[in-house]
Design brief:
single chain; mainly alpha; 80% helix; 0% strand
């Protein structure tokens, strides 16, 4: 179940990145992040009502708040990088560091992998890095590369910290996360983008990004509370495939041969990981 939840999270993340990246090309990235995170509170409220927690501790909320710091940095930098570059360049590079770091942490802290799971993790990481490498050969300035990698580190920290919360706490750690991400977003928007404001024309994309991102967070939180950090993180990091497919369908972008191979490897990895 945790692996299926992680895959669902990847789908939501990929679609959310597409919406957030599209909005950030016209509007301030930190403002898009803050507004989308606020709109996502509606989905979080629904999740808390539909799936009440059995037991919530202070530690669960604190871990959630720590995850929120990583998440805020990740989303803000990702949207900013998407605004200056392209989805196909930034998203896979971010996903590469997002997937690799939790695996390293999981193994360093004694987490074990079965043979097929280990092969699946390796194939999934190859798929993510293949997309990132292929795109980086086209156009990836040092500053954009740094932003993409930093965003990935932020998301990796989100995964690692949420994994420390208990299954009994349900979605309440995400309340702690949102208590951090929303103020941080509006503060950084005020400081870094004081003369640029959102308007109603981009609200639908901002709303879509917020609801999809929260949907992903709900699924990933449930997956991390139930399954191994490394495998869940790698599966969740397959989201650039979703972003690439949406870009192909909606923006008429074409998948390269490398991307097609990466998608095929990712699908094999998914089968191995869910065995």
């Amino acid at each position: 179940m945790s692996l299926l939840l992680a895959l669902g999270g990847a789908i939501f993340y990929g679609a959310g990145d597409f919406a957030g990246g599209f909005a950030s090309k016209r509007f301030p990235a930190w403002g898009v992040m803050a507004a989308s995170q606020t709109i996502g509170l509606g989905a979080l409220g629904a999740g808390l009502i539909l799936f009440p927690a059995d037991n919530v501790t202070t530690a669960d909320i604190v871990w959630g708040a720590a995850a929120g710091i990583g998440g805020a940095i990740g989303i803000g930098l990702l949207y900013r990088a998407l605004a200056e570059g392209t989805m196909a360049v930034v998203s896979p590079v971010t996903a590469a560091s997002t997937g690799a770091i939790p695996v390293a942490v999981d193994l360093a802290t004694g987490g074990g992998l079965g043979l097929w799971s280990a092969v699946g993790v390796v194939l999934a990481l190859i798929a993510i890095f293949a997309i990132a490498w292929e795109k980086s050969q086209r156009r990836l300035e040092p500053r954009l590369l740094a932003m993409a990698l930093a965003a990935g580190i932020g998301f990796a920290l989100f995964f690692i910290f949420i994994a420390q919360t208990s299954e009994e706490s349900g979605f309440w750690p995400l309340v702690g996360a949102r208590a951090v991400t929303i103020p941080m977003g509006f503060l950084l928007h005020r400081i870094l983008e004081p003369r640029i404001q959102l308007d109603a024309s981009g609200l639908k994309w901002v709303a879509a990004a917020g609801l999809l991102d929260m949907g992903a967070n709900l699924l990933i939180a449930a997956a991390l509370q139930r399954g191994p950090l490394g495998i869940v993180s790698v599966l969740s990091s397959l989201y650039p495939i979703v972003t690439a497919v949406l870009a192909m369908l909606l923006l008429k972008e074409r998948l390269s041969s490398t991307q097609v191979l990466a998608v095929a490897l990712a699908m094999v990895a998914v089968v191995l990981l869910v065995l």
